[in-house]
Amino acid sequence: MSEQEKRVVGDNDVVSMEYTLTVDGEVVDSSEGHGPIEFIQGQGHIIPGLEKEVKGMALGESKEVAVSPAEGYGEEDPNAFVEVPKSEFPPEIPMEVGTPLQLRDHQGQVFDAHIAEVKEDSAVLNFNHPLAGKTLNFQIKIVGIREATPEELDHGHVHSH
Description:
By secondary structure, the chain is mainly beta. It is built from two helices and nine strands. The chain has helices at 48-54, 150-155; strands spanning 13-23, 26-30, 37-40, 62-67, 81-85, 100-104, 110-118, 122-126, 136-147. Strands 1, 2, 3, 4 and 9 form a five-stranded antiparallel sheet that branches. The two termini are 26 Å apart.
């Protein structure tokens, strides 16, 4: 058996992983058609609950992982809802539940939100991550493992070859 065949994921390894993410029985994201994602293990590039499960997996290994909200995108924050008068929205924005928005504050910082509720004269915006409060069900497969280069570790991300 070669070194690569018995290799398992450890911190500072570059991991190539195929995945499908299902939430509430619906596929919300997948590497299918895009190729595997690559990340440096142990660097916080992926959500904590998934990173914990990937550590120690072998090349070619597959498994199903359920990640709780606490180890995923957090619980939904009830203070992250803001009611905004409809008059403040540009006319091209559809006033429909689920419409994604990007807003900029006075300092130029960008915030993602989506419309949670539409009322007669206002809309309630939800600034929580869309997957906050959800259990994330992943089907994952490790398709590549290699040591990160010193440059990748220094820069904090994977460099394509």
